[in-house]
Amino acid sequence: MKLFRFSLFTWPLFGCLAVIAACSAPAEQSAPSPDSNIVTIVGAIHGQHRRSEAYSLAVLQAAIDKFDPDIIMVELPPERFAKASANYEKFGEVRESRADDFPELIDVVFPMRKEMGFQMIPVAAWTQKIADDRRAALARLQKDAARTSDWSAHQAANRAYSRTVSGRSDDPLFIHSEAYDQAVKLRQETYEELFGKDLGPGGWKNINAAHFMKIAAALDELKGQKKRILILYGAWHKYWFLEQLQKRDDIQLVSAAALFED
Asked: I need a surface site. Which of 53, 79, 172, 197 has the fewest CB within 10 A?
């Protein structure tokens, strides 16, 4: 599946999408079904949203408003989401420790849901045990003299990533670019190669696969409903999810970059 990058926010009819997609697609690719869901991924920068002017919470809110979603898939485990939702309904505040790490949710998505009426679906696979086990494994690895060369390689990958994103780590257009995704992929897949087996379910490949299993299951349930679906997740996960979504032939996958263009 080709990832289309064009303005998608003024279409009065889905039939226009089918025509545009057919013209943009390679000859061997058939046009999407008129019943296909439109899917985009927005990469969040969590606490950095509160410190950034370029990618502030207001900028994120404007992008979500521009997409006008029917559904937002969010980076919370189902049980944490249930608690956060109940608290928001009761107190007007999320009051959930995991959600508190994600201002894009507590300050943007939950309030917007009340105004816009979109559905939220939790699609995170993290558990406290996975997080605790991962933290403990990393602490052991850092103290293991036999893994010194692995840590050196990991740090070199970190430096290469930092050089690539320097000065642009909060630029939403850069974050939603192939250059950003490739920089993250190089860093994180080096990390996975070095430590993935040691981290078990908390390893980069395993946790992304677990997250995406929830995303895929939700998309399967929504198949053929002509919904506008926005997946809001930490920006580092974006390339991994895009690679999996591009294998599906039942959705119209579009780049989120247009949401941040003037």
From this structure: 53
In angstroms, the CA 31 to CA 20 distance is 9
The CATH number of domain 36-125+223-260 is 3.30.70? no
The total of other beta-carbon atoms located within 10 Å of residue 56's CB is 16
3-state secondary structure 145-176: HHHHHHHHHHHHHHHHHHHHHCCCCCCHHHHC
How does pLDDT run across 202-238, given as a tens digit for each residue? 999 999 999 999 999 999 999 999 999 999 999 999 9
pTM of the model: 0.87
Q: How far is 152 from 130, CA to CA, in rounded Å?
A: 25
Residues of the chain with CATH 3.40.35: 36-125+223-260
Query: Which residue has tokens 């909060």?
Result: 170
- Contact assessment for residue 255 and residue 176, using Cβ atoms and an 8 Å cutoff: yes
